[in-house]
Specification:
This protein has 14 helices and 23 strands. It is an alpha/beta fold. The strands form 6 sheets. Strands 2-15-17-16 form a 4-stranded mixed beta sheet. The protein has a 4-stranded mixed beta sheet with strand order 4-5-3-14, with helices on one face. β10 (161-163), α6 (169-179) and β11 form a beta-alpha-beta unit.
Length: 425
């Protein structure tokens, strides 16, 4: 088991960072959505991490011709997707597995989706069940709840009206992708708007998606092909947030993070940090597929905060925010976040168990936790194979020293994380 130690910072930093990983969510979708066109898509700044390269490999196994030059990718799809001769490996990516379920449900052929030991233990019925209800043929371990998943594509799925019981961008995206090949207009509704990259990108490619007065997205089936993508993938705000956290908890520190997507569904964690007292500025520079610009974060005294709204907009950053909460004055509370239980790990347990090792007092709830702020102490942290747990506590080490075990997950998700972390010293 690989591990590394982080030493406490003894001086402030004032840096600009333009080397943070490209956005993973958008990179996955670029590769997949290119299959809906009949022309070559051109993608710059594609994330060249293990998970997104796995997605690119799956797209290639489905028949697309891939040309790569570093982070620049050209994807030329075939007229008809190919039935692959091997299983399709999604690595550690729940996004890839769940979205491919929707994409492949209406493709003629047989497909087996698998992943690493952590992904094979994550729940998939939240996607499989609604897809099966419209005619998709999906099976797997535990009646289709655990991978490997087997999909027998059908040529036409039934149009649907579906009000999702969970606010999940992955479930929404899977159902939208299935609806594009349904036999009529489909309607999808969620209680709280989740990440909307799928809707933005597909609309940009020419898909017809409309929001109605009842809160449903009306998804029209494709008539022919979509336009190809021509996109530069922005910096991932979720990855960048670790260094926003670093500035927020380090006295007199400042960071300017360059070329980030400023999509409102992706920057909620920065707004929480701002509510806690950090100085946070958003500087928009362009808005084509996505609003893109810079985010500046400057250290200031942090105070406790209650987080109970827009949870789906900051679900990935809550582990990192738990570090800020542990160092803030007063108590902080996270609620309505039961979704954390079914991420790469049970992130509620992973957060509080590791905070306990660091001497932080807390109360655990079914849907979140309350943290008594003050100090955080050195400990040996087990990431449980979850990159966000590993990186959150690595940033905590800037305040108090820390040792992180099981760090392969960081390499999978954010290959140059340690390099950027080291540049702060």
């Amino acid at each position: 088991m690989e591990k590394f130690a982080i030493k406490k910072l003894i001086k402030a930093f004032d840096i600009e960072i333009d080397s943070i990983a490209s956005d993973k969510s958008i990179s996955h979708r670029c590769a997949m959505f290119s299959l809906f066109s009949n022309e070559t898509s051109y993608i710059k700044n594609y994330l060249t991490a293990e998970d997104t390269l796995n997605t690119l490999s799956i797209v290639e196994q489905l028949g697309a011709i891939i040309k790569r030059d570093g982070s620049s990718v050209e994807i030329t799809p075939t007229q008809t997707l190919t039935e692959p001769s091997n299983v399709l490996d999604c690595g550690n990516s729940g996004t890839a597995m769940r979205l491919f379920c929707g994409l492949l449900a209406s493709v003629d052929g047989a497909f087996t989706l698998t992943g690493d030991k952590y992904l094979r233990n994550r729940p998939m019925k939240r996607v499989a069940d609604p897809l099966r209800s419209i005619g998709a043929l999906i099976d797997g371990r535990e009646h289709g709840n655990k991978a490997p998943l087997f999909i027998r594509g059908v040529k036409k799925l039934q149009p649907f009206t579906y009000h999702s019981p969970v606010d999940s961008a992955q479930v929404k995206s899977a159902m939208i992708l299935a609806a594009l090949r349904a036999d009529g207009i489909s309607k999808y509704k969620e209680n709280e708007l989740t990440r909307d990259h799928t809707e933005r990108m597909l609309k940009g490619m020419g898909a017809k998606l409309e929001n109605d007065s009842d809160g449903y997205i009306n998804i029209h089936p494709l008539e022919g092909h979509l336009k190809p993508l021509n996109i530069t993938v922005p910096t991932d705000p979720s990855s960048a947030f670790f260094f926003a956290l670093a500035a927020a908890i380090t006295p007199k520190a400042r960071v300017l993070i360059k070329n980030v997507t400023l999509n409102p569904t992706r920057i909620e964690a920065y707004k929480v940090l701002k509510r806690m007292g950090a100085i946070v500025n958003f500087i928009e520079k362009e808005n084509v597929y996505e609003p893109i610009g810079d985010i500046e974060v400057i250290n200031n005294e942090l105070n406790g905060v209650d987080v109970s709204e827009n949870i789906s907009w900051l679900i990935d950053e809550l582990p990192a925010l738990s570090i800020a909460m542990s160092l803030a004055k007063g108590n902080s509370k996270v609620s309505n976040a039961k979704e954390l239980r079914v991420k790469e790990s049970d992130r509620i347990s992973a957060v509080v168990d590791n905070l306990k090792l660091c001497g932080v007092k807390y109360t655990e709830f079914d849907d979140g936790y309350e943290i008594i702020g003050g100090t955080i102490n050195k400990a040996v942290i087990n990431s449980q194979g979850d990159h966000r747990i590993a990186m959150s506590f690595a940033i905590a080490g800037l305040n108090c020293d820390m040792e992180i075990e099981d760090i392969q997950c960081i390499e999978t998700s954010f290959p140059n994380f340690k390099e950027i972390l080291d540049s702060l010293y």
